[in-house]
Amino acid sequence: MPSHDRHALDPSILDEAADWLMRLSEGSVSDSERQEWEHWRNSSPTHRQAWARAELLLSKLQGLPPALAMPSLDRPSHPGRRAAMGKLAALLALAPLTWGSWKLNDWQQWTADYRAPVGERRDLTLTDGTHVTLNTDTAIDVYFDDRQRLLLLRRGEILVQTAADPSPVARPFLVQTNEGRMQALGTRFSVREETGHTRLAVLEGAVRIQVKGIGEQVVQAGQRSGFSALGFDAPTPVDKSVLAWTQGMLMADNMRLADFVNELSRYRSGVLRCDPAIANLRISGAFPVNDSRRTLNMLAQTYPINVSSRLGDYWVMLAPA
C-alpha cells in the first residue's frame, strides 16, 4: 500500500489560499474582508497549513517566475487573473519539492566562511594582511595552507587588495569561481560571479586567469575582462562604475532601464520588475544602492516612469507614466 503523502493538500483549498494571497496583495482590502480571511484561515488545520505555505511563498517571492507579473494580480476582473491564480496554487502544491533549490542556496550561503547579506557590504582583513570587501549577497570560503592562499567565491562580488605573503615560502594568492581560477600578481582587483560567467576588473598590478581545458589570459591594470568554460572575453578599459558599489552607489551611463533594474535588484529583497514598454529607456546618474526606495523615487522624478508597489514594497513594478 503506498504511503500517504504528508505534503498533499486538497487542490480546492490551495485554490482558496491562492485567491486570498492575490486579494490581500491588491492593497485595498477592507476590514470585513480581512475578518473573512482570518475566519477562513482559522477554520481548519488544513486551511492553516495552506496559508503557512502562502506565507512561505511571500518570503520567497524573489524566485517567482516572470509569468506571475503583478499586472495580472492588480485587476480582479482581468482575464489573466484566473490563470495567474492557478499558477500560484500550483506553486503552493509543489512547494515542498520545488523550493528545495532555494533552501540549498540559502544553506550554501549561511555555511560559507564569510558572507554579506542582501543590501549589505562587509570588510575583512585576512591573516596574511589581505583586505577583502564583500558586496551584497556575497559568500566566500578561505583556504590558506603551506602551499597557497585561496579564496573560493561561492556567489556575489568581492574587491581584493592583496598583501605580501608573510610566510617564508611565497604562496600564490588565488581566487576560484565556478568558471576558473585567478592568480593575483601583486594587485588590487574585483571579481564578480554570475551564472556561468565571471567578471574581472584589475585596478593595480595584474591577474592571470586560468580556465581548465582552455588556457590562460593575463589582465593588466586598468583592464577588465570575463571568462566562462568556453573561453575569455576581450579585455576592455575599466570605467568608474566598476567600484561604485564600494561607495554605496550604482552608476548608470546611458544604461537601459531593464539592465539598471537587474543591477538594483541585487541590493534589495523582493521582486523588482520593469514593464517591457520602457525596458529600453536610457538613464544616467549616480543612485544609492542602500536605499532602493529613494533610488526609485529619483527615477520617477527624472524619467517618465511610474513606480507601484505591493506587499509592503516587496513587489515593485516600473511602468510607463
Automatic annotation (TrEMBL):
Q: Which residues form the FecR protein domain?
A: 113-208
- Which InterPro entries does the UniProt entry name for this protein? FecR (IPR006860), FecR_N (IPR032623), Ferrdict_sens_TM (IPR012373)
The FecR N-terminal domain covers 15-56
Name the source's superkingdom: Bacteria
Instruction: Output this protein's name.
Output: FecR family protein
Q: Give the organism the record lists.
A: Pseudomonas canavaninivorans
